[in-house]
UniProtKB/TrEMBL annotation, chain A:
Species annotation: Chitinophaga rhizophila
InterPro entries per record: CO_DH_flav_C, CO_DH_flav_C_dom_sf, Diverse_Substr_Oxidored, FAD-bd_PCMH, FAD-bd_PCMH-like_sf, FAD-bd_PCMH_sub1, FAD-bd_PCMH_sub2, Mopterin_DH_FAD-bd
Keywords: FAD, Flavoprotein
UniProt domain FAD-binding PCMH-type: residue ranges: 1-221
Tagged with keyword Flavoprotein: yes
SMART domains for this protein: CO_deh_flav_C
Keyword Transport: no
Name of the protein described by the UniProt record: Xanthine dehydrogenase family protein subunit M
SUPFAM superfamilies hit by this protein: CO dehydrogenase flavoprotein C-terminal domain-like, FAD-binding/transporter-associated domain-like
One Pfam match: CO_deh_flav_C
Signal peptide, first to last residue: none
Superkingdom of origin: Bacteria
TrEMBL record, chain B:
Species of origin: Chitinophaga rhizophila
Alphabetized CDD domains for the sequence: fer2
Name by which UniProt lists this protein: (2Fe-2S)-binding protein
PANTHER family, alphabetized: OXIDOREDUCTASE WITH IRON-SULFUR SUBUNIT (PTHR45331:SF2), OXIDOREDUCTASE, IRON-SULPHUR BINDING SUBUNIT-RELATED-RELATED (PTHR45331)
Keywords for the protein's UniProt record, in alphabetical order: Iron, Metal-binding, Oxidoreductase
SUPFAM superfamilies according to UniProt: 2Fe-2S ferredoxin-like (SSF54292), CO dehydrogenase ISP C-domain like (SSF47741)
Pfam families, sorted: Fer2, Fer2_2
Top-level taxon of origin: Bacteria
InterPro entries: 2Fe-2S-bd (IPR002888), 2Fe-2S-bd_dom_sf (IPR036884), 2Fe-2S_ferredoxin-like_sf (IPR036010), 2Fe-2S_ferredoxin-type (IPR001041), 2Fe2S_fd_BS (IPR006058), Aldehyde_Oxdr_Iron-Sulfur (IPR052914), Beta-grasp_dom_sf (IPR012675), TAT_signal (IPR006311)
Domain 2Fe-2S ferredoxin-type: start-end pairs: 55-131
Parts forming coiled coils: none
Length: 329, 209
C-alpha cells in the first residue's frame, strides 16, 4: 500500500474541511472496500480522513419515515427493530450481502460508495475505463459473466455490487449529503448513475460532499417482501442477479408493488414499468411473467453474461411469487 | 537479476528516506524548537523522519495496553503479527475474503486485514491468544479439539473467534443458521461439518462464551 497521511475527525464539518486540504483525500469509514482498493493500487489517496467517530450512526423514526445515519453499521441496520418492523426488505438485502465480519465494519454510506467488483477494474495490468479513463474496457469481448445487461455503454459494462442499495432503491429512500455549500437531498434512484462516456464517475455525489443520512418513507402497506439473490454459492458471494420485492395485496390483487434488481446494471435497477403493469392485477404467475417480459425488453447481453437474459426474468418471477406468498411456497 | 532487484529496492528505499530526511529538516526548521533543529543537524534526522511518517497508537490488546508508533498504512493484522508477535491471528487472503484474520474489536468480530491499525485508537482488541485463562482453554477451543474442527489448522483461530461471536450474536440456533453466519470463514480442508458440531455443542452446553 502506498503511503498516505491520516487524520481522525469527530464532526462532519471537520471532515469536509480536512478533505479539502488534499485533492486526492478520501473519507475512510468501514474501509472494507477502500482499504482493499488501496492494497491493490486501484485507489491511491495521499490523505485519509477517518470519519468513523463522527456521530452519524443513529437510527431513529421521524414523523414520515425512518432516518438511518450514514455511519450506521450494516449489522446494526439489518437487526434494528424499526427496520425489521417497517422495512424487512432492507434487512433481508443487508443480510444477503458480505459476511458477518464485513457487515460489522461496513457502513450505510460506505456501502453506497463501494466500487464495482469487475476483475478488469481490480487488475491494474488490464485496461479499464473506470479505473483509467480512455484505456478501454477489458470486459467487453472478455470475461463478462458478472456484467451488466441493462444500461451499459460501449465504455463500461460493470455492475454496482450492493444488495442494500437494491432495497433502498425499491423503498424510495432519499439521501442527505452535506458539503461546503450546505445540505442537499438526492433521491436514491438518482444517486448512482449509468456509465455512459464517463464510467469513472459512479454517482452524483460531488467532490467534498459527505453523506450524512438516508431517509426511508413509511409505507406500511408494503409488508410482503422478498429479497432473492442468485449467486455461485449459498452465501457470501456477489449477486449474479438479485431481485428485491415489496408489495401489498388486497385479496389476491396487487394494491401496490416495488421491484428493484441487483447485479444487472451500473446502478440498482428499478423496475417502474413492471410495477405499473402489475398494479391492480391479480397476483398470478402469468402476470409476473409478463412483468418480467416487459422489463427484459431493454436487456442486452455479451456472450459471457447471455445466461442472465434467462436468469433475470426467472428471478423476477420467483421473487414476486415468494413475496406474494409471504415466503410460504 | 536478483542483484538488480535488490539494488532497485535499496535505491527506492533510500530515495524515499532521503526525501523524508530533507522534508523533516525543513519542517523542523520551520516549526520546531531549537533542540529539534540541533538534533537534525547532528544527524538524528532518521528519528525525525520516522516521527513524521508514523503515528502514536494506544490500543488494548488481550487486556494489555499497547503504545506503539506505526505508519497509517499498517493493518491491524500486520501490527499484531509483525510488531507484537501475536502470530495466532492468520493472514490468509489479506483481502477480507477468507476470515482467517478474524479478531474482536470491542467484542465484535471483524477482519483485521481490512482494519487500519490507527483506526483502533482506544479500542479493545481480542485475539485468539486472549481466550484461554492460563492453562484453561476457552469452551470454544475445547469444543474444536473435541470435535476435530480442523485439519491443517490455519483457519482455526479465525473460525474460533468468529464462532464465539456467532453464539453471542444469537445466530447459532440451528446448523443452517450457523452455516450462514459462519460463511465469512473459509476452510480449505473442509472441516465445516465438525466446526458446526463444535459450535452447536458449545451453544447447547450453555457455557458463557
Amino acid at each position: 500500500m502506498k503511503q498516505f497521511s491520516y487524520v481522525r475527525v469527530t464532526s462532519g464539518k471537520a471532515a469536509i474541511s480536512e478533505l479539502s486540504k488534499d485533492k486526492t483525500a478520501m473519507f475512510l469509514a468501514g474501509g472494507t472496500n477502500l482499504v482493499d482498493l488501496m492494497k491493490s493500487g486501484v485507489t491511491n489517496p495521499e490523505r485519509l480522513v477517518d470519519i468513523t467517530r463522527v456521530p452519524l450512526a443513529t437510527i431513529e423514526a421521524t414523523k414520515t419515515g425512518l432516518r438511518i445515519g450514514a455511519l450506521a453499521k450494516n449489522t446494526a441496520v439489518a437487526e434494528h427493530p424499526l427496520v425489521l418492523k417497517h422495512f424487512p426488505l432492507l434487512s433481508q438485502a443487508l443480510n444477503a450481502g458480505a459476511s458477518p465480519q464485513l457487515r460489522n465494519m461496513a457502513t450505510v454510506g460506505g456501502n453506497m460508495m463501494q466500487r464495482t467488483r469487475c476483475h478488469y477494474f481490480y487488475d491494474t495490468a488490464l485496461p479499464c475505463n473506470k479505473r483509467n479513463p480512455g484505456s478501454g474496457c477489458g470486459a467487453i469481448g472478455g470475461f463478462s459473466r458478472m456484467h451488466a445487461i441493462f444500461g451499459a455503454s460501449d465504455k463500461c459494462i460493470a455492475v454496482h455490487p450492493s444488495d442494500m442499495c437494491v432495497a433502498l432503491t425499491a423503498l424510495d429512500a432519499v439521501i442527505t449529503v452535506t458539503g461546503a455549500k450546505g445540505e442537499r437531498k438526492i433521491s436514491f434512484g438518482e444517486f448512482h448513475r449509468l456509465p455512459g462516456d464517463t464510467p469513472e464517475i459512479d454517482n452524483t455525489l460531488q467532490r467534498g460532499e459527505l453523506i450524512t443520512a438516508v431517509d426511508i418513507p413509511f409505507n406500511d402497506a408494503l409488508q410482503q417482501t422478498h429479497y432473492l439473490k442468485v449467486r455461485d454459492r449459498a452465501s457470501y458471494a456477489f449477486a449474479l442477479v438479485s431481485a428485491g420485492v415489496a408489495l401489498s395485496l388486497k385479496g389476491n390483487n396487487i394494491a401496490d408493488v416495488r421491484i428493484a434488481m441487483g447485479g444487472v446494471a451500473h446502478k440498482p435497477w428499478r423496475l417502474k414499468e413492471a410495477e405499473a403493469y402489475l398494479k391492480g392485477k391479480p397476483a398470478t404467475e402469468e402476470h409476473f411473467r409478463e412483468a418480467a417480459r416487459l422489463t427484459m425488453a431493454q436487456a442486452k447481453a455479451e456472450e459471457g453474461n447471455a445466461y442472465k437474459l434467462t436468469l433475470a426474468p426467472n428471478t423476477i418471477v420467483e421473487a414476486l411469487k415468494l413475496a406474494a406468498a409471504n415466503g410460504n411456497i | 537479476m536478483k542483484d538488480d532487484q535488490l539494488m532497485n529496492e535499496e535505491h527506492s528505499g533510500t530515495s524515499r528516506r532521503s526525501f523524508l530526511k530533507r522534508t523533516s529538516l525543513m519542517t523542523a526548521m520551520a516549526l520546531a524548537p531549537e533542540t529539534v533543529i540541533k538534533a537534525a543537524e547532528k544527524g538524528l534526522d532518521e528519528k525525525i523522519a520516522a516521527t513524521i511518517e508514523t503515528m502514536p497508537l494506544n490500543v488494548t490488546i488481550n487486556g494489555v495496553k499497547q503504545s506503539v508508533r506505526i505508519e497509517p498504512r499498517v493493518t491491524l493484522l500486520d501490527l499484531l503479527r509483525e510488531r507484537l508477535q501475536l502470530t495466532g491471528t492468520k493472514k490468509g487472503c489479506d483481502h477480507g475474503q477468507c476470515g482467517a484474520c478474524t479478531v474482536h474489536i470491542d467484542g465484535e468480530r471483524v477482519n483485521a486485514c481490512l482494519t487500519l491499525a490507527v483506526t483502533t485508537e482506544g479500542r479493545d482488541v481480542t485475539t485468539i491468544e486472549g481466550l484461554a485463562k492460563g492453562d484453561e482453554l476457552h469452551p470454544m477451543q475445547e469444543a474444536f479439539l473435541e470435535h476435530d474442527g480442523f485439519q491443517c489448522g490455519y483457519c482455526t483461530p479465525g473460525q474460533i473467534m468468529s464462532a464465539i461471536c456467532c453464539i453471542r450474536e444469537g445466530h447459532a440456533d440451528t446448523p443452517d443458521e450457523i452455516r450462514e453466519y459462519m460463511s465469512g470463514n473459509i476452510c480449505r480442508c473442509g472441516a465445516y461439518s465438525n466446526i458446526v458440531d463444535a459450535i452447536m455443542d458449545v451453544k447447547q452446553g450453555g457455557k458463557k462464551v
